[in-house]
Amino acid sequence: MNKPASSDGTVGKALETLDMVAELGRPVRFTELLAMSPHPKATLYRLLQTLTNQGMLAYDEARQTYSPGLRLVRLAHFAWRQSSLAPIARPHLDALAAAVGETVHLAQMDRGQVLYVDKRNAVDPIEMFSQAGKVGPGYCTGVGKAIMAHLEGEARQNAINQQAFFRHTNTTLTTTEALEAELDEIRSEGVAFDREEHEPGIICIAAPILTEGGRVLGALSVTTSTSRQSLEQLSDLRPKVQSTAIKIAETAEVWQFPT
Amino acid sequence: MNKPASSDGTVGKALETLDMVAELGRPVRFTELLAMSPHPKATLYRLLQTLTNQGMLAYDEARQTYSPGLRLVRLAHFAWRQSSLAPIARPHLDALAAAVGETVHLAQMDRGQVLYVDKRNAVDPIEMFSQAGKVGPGYCTGVGKAIMAHLEGEARQNAINQQAFFRHTNTTLTTTEALEAELDEIRSEGVAFDREEHEPGIICIAAPILTEGGRVLGALSVTTSTSRQSLEQLSDLRPKVQSTAIKIAETAEVWQFPT
DNA sequence: GGAAATGGTTTCATTATTTGAAACATATGT
DNA sequence: ACATATGTTTCAAATAATGAAACCATTTCC
């Protein structure tokens, strides 16, 4: 009886494998996967075959490499429409972006990481390179902290435990204690700031999107660089950011968005 | 020994179930799924549990409903970047859209259906998975026919066999014979037209994206309405559409896009 | 040219997971 | 309280997954 980290039978293993391929972000050969996989050759081979049959992976005959398959794009379309805040938040994000003229992000939490579900880029007519679907760390982004600050009890501990606490810059919070203190602060403050904790020169203000009952659905942020605005200037945007968050929450409530 | 359509063991069943939930496009209750599922109660129950654990489905406690989960969005991000033509085609689509001032679609084939992987809308800018990830029929869209026309032998028959041949309008092709004749025509012509076959008043011109070796990677189209342009006017765009298709193919070749 | 290595695929007896009818819970309505 | 609809758990039987090893096909090295 051995415990392979965490998995739901064969399906779990298959999906873990799919993740491995996807997160590499480039075509991979069988052998390379074998090296990082916990499974023996034959098992991995069949997992990959199954995933390929199913269109979850694409196999390039010529190069003998695997990549994530297009079936995922199709499935994600539905997920994005139904389970993300993006469709609901759209007009509000548009308005906010127009008003502040800076980059605006909309994010939700997915297994301890921040998942960006929509974005407005002030200047260029959209960096269409799929920002939706990108993931980022929770402990050193404005949206991540804003969301975590409003998680309760177990969910919060869970999220905190999943953080990597890698020191990206010298302001990055690198301990659970520091993060917890910051989250309490954010909770009472109502907004979160990213003080160059993820990337030097990049700062943001973020507000949680909270339901009537206090459940956190996601967060949104306005991001800028220290060369353009100071933290103080950013914090002047608080009313706009918060009211946008509230409007999104209200719209979600009307639409009966699942929590 | 019974043959449940087509499946790869447990993983196949799980993914089929995931598809079912996703394609309904709205939250579903257990019982509703049970009705359409080939599996007994307990089996379906556990499949759903597994998928939920894995983040492929989201379960709304309050409403007791399942929806596609956000993990899909995250996975699809990678799929879209790696396995779709969209990143490669981006500048070319931009240019074409600017030149023609009409809606431009980029599509690939996924299991007999047209999968739109990018879009330019003359007016409003795009949101990621709202357009990308959408699927449409193959037999009555310009892109669908353009792609199928350049599939060879078995692949082509396969694609044809997967068509539903539902009569959307009175110009819709509703038999394999009619479609095959049309595909031959398209192949020799080089471009495909949608003559209001899918929606009344909507017409388009589409060109296949072909590799050096004649393999079809996808197709792109310019869509308009009969109130704005006639078929004849649309066909004047042929040079622009075709040269864009060629440029995309060349870029794909340089980038070693997997076929 | 031949040997060895590399990378991918298949076999098959063993083992573990999945299965599903039925019993059990837990609401929701009468 | 009763009935009904819906969701969850049990457990022996059926099935599918496993993985060591053999196999096949290329490429690389001597």
From TrEMBL, chains A, B:
Q: Which SMART domains match?
A: HTH_ICLR
Keyword DNA-binding on this protein?
A: yes
Q: Where is the HTH iclR-type domain?
A: 8-70
GO terms assigned for molecular function: DNA binding; DNA-binding transcription factor activity
Q: Which GO terms describe its biological process?
A: negative regulation of DNA-templated transcription
Tell me where on the tree of life, at the top rank, the source sits: Bacteria
Organism from which the protein derives: Harenicola maris
Which keywords annotate this record? Answer: DNA-binding, Transcription, Transcription regulation
Q: Does the keyword DNA-binding apply?
A: yes
Q: Which InterPro entries match?
A: GAF-like_dom_sf, HTH_MetabolicPath_Reg, Tscrpt_reg_IclR_C, Tscrpt_reg_IclR_N, WH-like_DNA-bd_sf, WH_DNA-bd_sf
Protein name per the record: IclR family transcriptional regulator
User: Do you know which PANTHER family this protein is assigned to?
Assistant: HELIX-TURN-HELIX TRANSCRIPTIONAL REGULATOR, ICLR FAMILY, HTH-TYPE TRANSCRIPTIONAL REPRESSOR ALLR
Residue ranges constituting the IclR-ED domain according to the UniProt record: 71-254
